[in-house]
Amino acid sequence: MSYIYDILHTRSMTYAKTSDFTQEQQELARVAKALAHPARVAIIQLLASKQTCISGDIAAELPLSRTTVSQHLQELKALDLIRGEIDGLTVCYCLNIELLRKVHAQFTGFFLEATSNGACGSGDGCAC
Q1: What is the per-residue burial (b if ≥16 Cβ within 10 Å, else e) of 3-17?
Q2: Which of 33, 31, 39, 18 is nearest to 99 (CA)?
Q3: pLDDT in tens, 51-108
Q4: Whole-angstrom Cα distance, residue 115 to residue 122?
Q5: Which of 106, 105, 107, 83 is nearest to 95 (CA)?
Q6: CB neighbours of 94 closer than 8 A, spacing ≥ 6?
Q7: CA 42/CA 40 separation, integer angstroms
Q8: With contact defined as beta carbons under 8 Å apart, do 43 and 76 qualify?
Q9: 124 CB burial (10 A radius; 0-12, 13-18, 19+)
Q10: Backbone torsions φ then ψ of 98, nearest 5 degrees
Q11: How far apart are the first and last CA of the chain?
Q12: Rounded CA gap, 25 and 107, in Å?
């Protein structure tokens, strides 16, 4: 077949692969990706400690520029991990506690399942 067909076929196979995973697996992966940056972890921890926060306050408390903090806030907001309300010229951000509880339960279940088998433990020799 043609080179272009091969490229298009490969791309369509790549995109289709995510649909082969469960909705929960896809959700966990999206959240894990969002939390894979320490700035986003720091933002969530800051919001948790203050319950609500104005965007300018977040930038003042992190070693990042206001623009960079804004980009990280948008990433978290896109997944609905945080919510923002416009108040005049500022945006007040807060955590989506309901979603964070759901994510907590999903990750807890994931790690319990991954560690409950005991086939390869730190003290045991791995059968690999």
Answers
A1: eeeeeeeeeeeeeee
A2: 31
A3: 667 777 788 899 999 899 989 999 999 999 999 887 777 888 999 999 999 999 999 9
A4: 11
A5: 83
A6: 47, 51, 52, 53, 82, 83, 84, 85
A7: 5
A8: yes
A9: exposed
A10: -60, -45
A11: 40
A12: 10
Domains for the chain: give ranges and CATH numbers.
21-103 (1.10.10.10)
The token duo for 5 is 């067909």
| Least confident window among 13-22, 57-66, 99-108, 118-127 | 118-127
Asked whether 31 and 44 are in contact (CB, 8 A), the reply is no
Nearest to 95 by CA among 108, 77, 78: 77
Q: Are 42 and 58 in contact (CB under 8 A)?
A: no
> Tokens 């989506």, residue?
96
Question: H-type helices in 1-128, by residue range?
Answer: 3-17, 23-34, 38-50, 55-61, 66-78, 97-116
Q: Which SS3 state, helix, strand or coil, does residue 36 take?
A: coil
